[in-house]
Write a structure and sequence with these properties.
- The protein is of the alpha+beta class.
- It has one domain: Beta-grasp domain (Ubiquitin-like (UB roll)), CATH 3.10.20.
- About 10% of the residues lie in helices and about 25% in strands.
- The protein has one helix and seven strands, in the order ββαβββββ.
- The strands form two sheets. A five-stranded mixed β-sheet has the order 2-1-7-5-6, with helices on one face. A two-stranded antiparallel ribbon has the order 3-4.
- The longest helix is centred in the N-terminal third of the chain and has 11 residues.
- It is globular and about 30 Å long.
- This is MoaD family protein.
- InterPro entries: Beta-grasp_dom_sf, MoaD_arc-typ, Mopterin_synth/thiamin_S_b, Sulfur_Carrier/Prot_Modifier, ThiS/MoaD-like.
- It holds the Pfam family ThiS.
- It comes from Frankia umida.
């Protein structure tokens, strides 16, 4: 079963610069194990714990635009032709002082 995986820029060092890679697996967890056989270290950036049983807190995974957290997490089922998107959560901002508008 072939699944297309979209890889964000920050993780492309693990995929040799490729933004789209192919993997296989019945579940997201299986897919990540498969990807790690060809892209060593990628799985470790996506899951946490000694057994890799849960997603890193700041990683969002989507199957065909649906968040896997609502589909069963790492146990979410995959089918041939699915598209998996990896998105790191981004936070932050200017962090500076914002001047209030002058009264007119």
């Amino acid at each position: 079963m072939a699944v297309q995986v979209r890889v964000p820029t920050i993780l492309r060092t693990y995929t040799g610069g490729a933004k789209l890679v192919e993997g296989a697996g019945d579940t997201v967890a299986d897919l990540f194990r498969d990807l790690d056989t060809r892209h060593d270290g990628l799985r470790g950036r996506l899951v946490t714990g000694d057994d890799g049983a849960e997603l890193h807190r700041f990683v969002n995974i989507y199957i065909n635009d649906e968040d896997v957290r609502f589909l069963g997490g790492l146990d979410a089922k995959l089918k041939d032709g699915d598209e998996v998107t990896i998105l790191p959560a981004v936070a932050g901002g200017a962090g500076g002082f914002v001047r209030p508008l002058a009264a007119g």
